[in-house]
Design a protein that fits this description.
Elements lengths: L1 E9 L5 H13 L8 E7 L4 E8 L12 E2 L5 E9 L2 H10 L9 H12 L1 H4 L5 E9 L4 E6 L8 E5 L2 E5 L2 H5 L10 H10 L12 E3 L4 E5 L10 E2 L3 H10 L6 H18 L7 E4 L4 H13 L5 E6 L8 H11 L2 E6 L2 H5 L5 H4 L9 H12 L4 E3 L4 H5 L3 H4 L1 H9 L3 H12 L3 H11 L12 H11 L5 H9 L19 H8 L5 H11 L1 H15 L4 E3 L5 H7 L15 H8 L18 H6 L3 H8 L12 H12 L6 H17 L2
Parallel strand pairs: 13-14, 13-16, 14-15, 16-17
Antiparallel strand pairs: 1-3, 1-9, 2-3, 4-5, 5-6, 6-7, 7-11, 8-9, 8-10, 11-12
Helix pairs in contact: 2-3, 8-9, 8-25, 9-10, 9-25, 13-23, 17-19, 18-19, 19-20
């Protein structure tokens, strides 16, 4: 079930009514995650309470209601997500004599805990989940997050009180909540457009890392460290130790089998289902495999921004026609997209500035008119090396390392002195002489990134500059410099000895994937009560991906070789072989046009000359450069605007 969960463990509050009311208050603010049902439970003697909002997907009856207790009464849980292989686990348990009342995956999870224990049961689950379970026998609360971080789980602790929830806004409801901004998190956010885990924008709150279990015996002492039950570092090491030394044909056949199984499991639902289709390699592969398992045409949905470089609607329509789906397309105007902007601070209740948040919300809203569940192609780039920064990154970084650092930095400054529009014009002047398969969209943007790359003094710093989609130097926007190392820096250092391609992909899978891409999909889809499923991030697909050598990922200057071959077996390659666009919006032109007045009012309120966090003088200079046509400043300013909008909603 795609839902929202909240809860607390406390010695600060007492009484069943007080605990239950507080849990209910926390869950009331995330109704969008589960509009179909609600529930609450408390054990006043233990000081534990759970709250729940339900979006019914499997077993629509009352037998799927949560919080749910196990058959013996030992375990009580709340659970957000889906365990897709619940049928197979159920059959195994039934063979051992376990009897079930309903048909939900929640009941199977509880029976698994009773049969094998929490720690031993979780690795058996294939799915996306955030689980909180109370064990009345050991008096332990366990918080559990799925392997890749598809589902969110936040927690906050102070002496005598632990609170947790699917969204930050639920924790804000707890009396005495400490809303102090985390300076390290803010700096990282302005650099990357998202807050890297385990940080959140609040100093008092943490994100549970993907693939971890946090087990709590008491809230009166410092919490123990969460323990991993699945580790990408281990998956990488195992994959390197057991690489696939087989033919191209065998790799493609096996990948197709694994993907087909991942898609088949994610088609289990008791409510209408469809797919989000961009027309790219990833979503097209998912839809093609859905069509093979479906008994009727798959419902597919896409949106387009006519007349912009970000419009993929025609590509999606061609794929839908070739596959025979029941396709719905919506042309979105700038006005439609701009109407979403005021909703963003509530939707993303910590600062978040990946601009694809807007089209992701719009396509989710379109799909929700007809279905409750939608599969998407998210994760293909991270698992199969689809990003341009992977394809060109190793070659460019290795080349740059051979240039004396002073000369390299000077060249980077020269590139940075010209606008993206200048480099776009220069590129298009020579594009007719470049083979069509080697051409790039958004060339000026990519050349600008090369300029930033040249300023790095090491491989890790160069790749960090590629990841720094917002401010290359956050102190340029802030009234005080509080940049400290984050988990991204720690990951870059930890993987320093790895081949550069592996290093880039592993860092992205451990940070960007969960904290940006999956956070965006979760918040945007759940805002309209749509369950989004991501078959390319089945953990078995990820494990298989790390057994693939470089030649199965990047070949002939293009990424996702093996995944492409799977798709080529189902559609004409000419339908999908085109430059990668990216699912985004024209932020720069909006901030110079229809959003200019709004942006001015947010950044530079009338009569305000100073700001606790932002350097308004330097921001004014950057804003003026954007208005003069310097598009490369747009995302940095967008991140600042999203921060100010968030402050206005949640701090003021």
């Amino acid at each position: 079930m795609m839902c929202g969960i909240v809860g607390l463990m406390t010695t600060a509050f007492s009484g069943a009514d007080v605990l239950t009311d507080l849990a209910r208050s926390m869950s009331d603010c995330i109704v969008h995650r589960g509009p179909d049902d609600s529930g609450s439970w408390s054990d006043s003697s233990a000081g534990v309470a759970f709250g729940f909002r339900r979006l019914s997907i499997l077993d629509l009856s009352a037998l799927g209601h949560q919080p749910m207790a196990s058959g013996s009464g030992r375990f009580t849980l709340v659970f957000n997500g889906e365990v897709y292989n619940y049928v197979e686990i159920r059959e195994m348990l039934e063979a051992d004599g376990v009897r079930f009342r309903g048909h939900s995956d929640t009941e199977v999870i509880l029976a698994s805990f009773e049969r094998w224990g929490v720690v031993a049961a979780v690795p058996r689950f294939v799915g996306m989940f955030a689980i909180a379970v109370w064990d009345t026998e050991t008096h332990r609360l366990s918080l559990i997050r799925d392997r890749l971080g598809i589902k969110p789980l936040y927690y906050s602790h102070r002496p005598g009180l632990l609170s947790f929830g699917s969204e930050l806004k639920a924790l804000v409801r707890v009396p005495g909540f400490d809303g102090t901004i985390d300076e390290t998190a803010l700096n990282a956010y302005l650099r990357y457009l998202y807050v890297p885990a385990p940080h959140t924008i609040y100093r008092s709150v943490r994100k549970l890392l993907p693939g971890h279990i946090l087990t709590i015996d008491t809230v009166n002492e410092t919490l123990p460290e969460p323990v991993p039950y699945w580790s990408l570092d281990d998956v990488y090491a195992t994959g390197c130790a057991n690489p696939l030394d087989v033919s191209d044909e065998e790799v493609v056949t096996e990948l197709r089998r694994i993907l087909a199984e991942a898609v088949r499991l994610r088609m289990r639902s008791d409510v209408p289902m469809g797919a989000l289709l961009s027309g790219g390699i990833d979503s097209s592969t998912v839809v093609a495999l859905m069509q093979e398992h479906a008994t009727q045409p798959t419902r597919t949905f896409s949106i387009g921004f006519p007349g912009t470089a970000h419009d993929e609607a025609k590509d999606a329509a061609r794929i839908a026609s070739a596959l025979g789906t029941h396709h719905t397309e919506l042309s979105v105007t700038a006005a439609d997209a701009l109407d979403v902007v005021p909703l963003l601070p509530d939707m993303f209740d910590e600062p978040f500035a990946d601009p694809s948040q807007i089209p992701t919300y719009l396509v989710s809203k379109l799909a929700r008119r007809a279905v409750t569940v939608a599969l998407s192609g998210d994760g293909g780039d991270e698992v199969f090396a689809g990003y341009e920064r992977y394809i060109q990154g190793e070659r460019v970084i290795r080349s740059l390392e051979r240039i004396p650092s002073a000369l390299r930095r000077a060249a980077g400054a020269t590139i940075g002195s010209s606008s993206e529009q200048f480099w776009d014009r220069a590129y298009h002047a020579v594009a007719p002489f470049v083979d069509s398969t080697g051409r790039h969209r958004l060339a000026g943007q990519k050349i600008g990134k090369l300029g930033n790359l040249m300023s790095g003094t090491s491989e890790g710093q160069m790749y960090r500059s590629l990841l720094s989609a917002g401010w290359q130097d956050p102190s340029a926007a802030l009234a005080r410099d509080g940049e400290r190392p984050t988990r991204i820096d720690e990951l870059l250092d930890r993987h320093a000895s790895l081949p550069l391609l592996d290093r880039m992909m592993l860092v992205d899978q451990q940070s960007y994937l969960a904290d940006d891409l999956l956070a965006k999909v979760d918040r945007a889809s759940m805002a309209v009560s749509l369950e989004a499923r991501v078959p390319l991030l089945d953990h078995r697909v990820v494990e298989f991906g790390w057994r693939l050598g470089r030649r199965f990922k990047i070949r002939d200057g293009r990424g996702k070789w093996a995944l492409r071959q799977v798709l080529y077996g189902m559609v004409d390659p000419r339908l999908v072989d085109r430059p990668k666009t990216g699912f985004s919006v024209p932020i720069a032109s909006w901030l110079r046009g229809p959003l200019r007045e709004w942006g001015e009012s947010i950044l530079f309120p009338t009569g305000v000359r100073s700001d606790e966090w932002l350097d308004l003088k330097r921001l004014r200079s950057t804003w003026d450069r954007l208005q003069a046509g310097r598009d490369e400043t747009a995302l940095a300013l967008w991140s600042t605007l999203m921060f100010q909008s968030w402050r206005k909603r949640w701090i003021s």
